[in-house]
Amino acid sequence: MDYFLQQVINGLQIGFVYALIALGYTMVYGVVGLINFAHGDVFMVGAFIGLYAIGKYHLPLFAVFLLATIGCAVLAVVMERVAYRPLRQAPRIASLITAIGVSLFLEYFTALNQVFGPNFYSFPRPFAVSSWGPGDISLTNIQAIIFLVTLSCLGALQFIVRRTRVGRAMRAVSFDPVTAGLVGVDVNRVISITFGLGAALAGVGGVLYGIAYPQVNTFMGVMPGLKAFTAAVLGGIGSIPGAVLGALIMGQSETLASAYLSSTYRDGIAFVILIGVLLLRPTGILGAAKTEKV
Amino acid sequence: MKALPSLAKALAWLAAVYAAMFAFDSSGLANPYWLQVFELACITAISALGLNVIYGFTGLFSLGHAAFYGIGAYTAALTLKSLGVESQPAFLCALLAGAAAAALVALLVGVSTIRLTSDYLGIATLGFGIIMKVVFDNADSFIPRLGGARGMTGIAKMTTLPWAFVLLGGSLLVIRNLVHSSYGRALVSIREDEIAAGAMGIDTFRYKTAGFVIGCAFAGLAGGLYAHLYAFLHPSNFDFFKSVDVLVIVVLGGLGNMSGTLVASFGWVFLLETLRVVLPPEYVEFRWVLIPILLVVTMLARPRGLLGIGEFRFLRGGAGR
Question: Counting Cβ atoms within 10 Å, is residue B185 exposed (0-12), middle (13-18) or buried (19+)?
Fold first, then answer.
């Protein structure tokens, strides 16, 4: 039982990181209907900003998060402006291929020796690891930080989306971009903000991931990105609580699969669950069922 | 009764080009490296034509094409190894087994997931692709010969230029005839408007599944050729990026355009290889920086596909003539 509870805690740790990434996918999809394949690489850039800020400049943790947030948000806004906006009226597949192109570019460009380099780099721990808890169950301070930071990010996001003008504009664009534009919402600005907000969360996620699994590489974003996107689909894409729920399921299934089956099956199990859920609920757990109009 | 002469003409062309290829292949004039690249381009084109049936003609968004390519590759390699003879007929059996295995799995996947709508189908097939990658990685735990994460070795080098070329020609012929048949018209009508197609009496579920299975069978066929081209298989040859490669080819060539797919396949494979040769060794890594930039620029400039060309004459339907 202790072992099980310990695995659940470990599952929450990775699940919360997935949640931070999944939110960006779900928000962007909700607003522009694009699978932003480059989002996982924004997460990677966040981790590298953390690597440099902690390892080279020894900044305090708070400043590291701030830097990663701003850096990733700027990157995503530029990306949207340069690559996605010109294609908004084009067939959807064109933006999708462009997203894949941007993703490959970020991975291989940062892997050049002149940028970050192609190797695995160990991520410095900004503080000593300690743990506490009853019996065999333990909660490390890393896990505590992940839980606290993620929950406060979620709170902040929920506040922005539900309680502010910008949030209301985002919901309006997501509901119907043309009408939102007609009633005076600056659609382009809202889309930029959405990209920036999602990327900021991914940046925080990147730093947390680096602290928890202290090795970074320019291709580290691929798998977490795919899994986080899957989590968003699992929960019902476009839905913010759905993304978090999906990410937590993803984290649990993955951790429990490697604990009780074999770690080699870890990457597969989450997708088996995904396909199972989609067969029962074709629009995800919390996704709204779409009725087709003729 | 125009069909028969046109078929005969196509076969005559194929035979002529085959003879030329065979003479070229055995003359020793060709550089073996570029010959291999050309064979790879033929194989890639077969696989891409399969995806074109699925996505271009039927409109089913699939992000797991490489998984079916992999199923074909592993099945064919295992079949030929199990047969124990390395003769041409045995190779043909192995290739057909690969295509059949891919089609069978596609049928199972298709029947269960084909009801999903566009993006959700894409994600389900993406998920299936990743599951298959995990299966390939662990394949040695149930069939030791498949090699698992260490890769499968000891595969006979059977794929030659005539094999690759004739099968590409045959695939083109089959797909052309499929697309211009009433079956193919039904697939296209589903892509254009599924509800209207259903209202016109097309069993959309059955046709969509059929389109998916046929496309995946071509991926399996190409996979078998691939396995016997390099004589080595590794699960990383069939990961998500390989599915993306084929998708890029189909989109660049233009959806539902066989000639475009053909040109884009050869262009893509030769571009990758040329960049490998042209760039100085210390800059080879720039290859994957240049290609995404090219891709993004191309999409920005030509969002409807790079080529936008009409079909080659031998791929056009009979109705317009």
Answer: middle
**CA-based nearest residue in chain B for residue A266:** B134
**Side chain identity at residue A161, one-letter code:** V
CATH of B3-315, one of 3.40.630, 1.10.3470, 3.30.1370, 1.20.120: 1.10.3470
Residue A20: φ, ψ to 5°: -60, -35
pLDDT digits (tens, 9 = 90+) for B122-133: 889 999 999 999
Asked if residues B121 and B246 have their Cβ atoms less than 8 Å apart, the reply is no
Asked whether the predicted pLDDT for residue B9 surpasses 80, the reply is: no
pLDDT at B55 over 90: yes
Q: Does residue B214 sit in helix, strand or coil?
A: helix
- Look at A282 and B130 and tell me if their CB atoms are within 8 Å: no
Q: Which long-range contacts (CB under 8 A, 24 or more apart) does B273-276 make?
A: B273/B34, B273/B37
Average the pLDDT over each of A133-142, B155-164, B243-252 and give the range with the smallest value. A133-142
Query: Which residue(s) pair with A215 in the sheet?
Result: A122
Which of left, alpha, beta for A58 (phi over 0: left; psi -120 to 50: alpha)?
Answer: left
Task: Note whether B218 and B171 are within 8 A (CB).
Answer: yes
CB pair distance less than 8 Å for B289 and A105: yes
Separation between Cα atoms, residue B12 and residue A86, nearest integer Å: 47
Quick one: DSSP state of residue A81? I
| A115 three-state secondary structure | coil
In angstroms, the CA B175 to CA B211 distance is: 11
Q: Following DSSP, what letter does each residue of B119-181 receive, concatenated?
A: HHHHHHHHHHHHHHHHHHHTGGGT-GGG-GGG-B--------HHHHHHHHHHHHHHHHHHHTS
Interchain pair A264, B137: CB under 8 A = yes
**Domain segments of chain B: what residues?**
3-315
Q: CB contacts < 8 Å between A and B, how many? A: 116
Please check the confidence at residue A73 and state whether its pLDDT lies above 90.
yes
Say yes or no for a CB contact (<8 Å) between B295 and A272. Answer: no
- Residue A186's region, left for phi above 0, alpha for psi from -120 to 50, else beta, is beta
Give percent helix, percent strand, percent coil of chain A, each to the nearest 5. 70, 5, 25
The SS3 call for residue A158 is helix
Are the CB atoms for A47 and A216 separated by under 8 Å?
yes
Q: Note whether A115 contacts B: Cβ–Cβ < 8 A.
A: no
CA atoms B27, B73, A267, A274: torsion sign: positive
Please write the tens of the pLDDT for every residue from A85-107.
Answer: 998 888 888 888 899 999 999 99
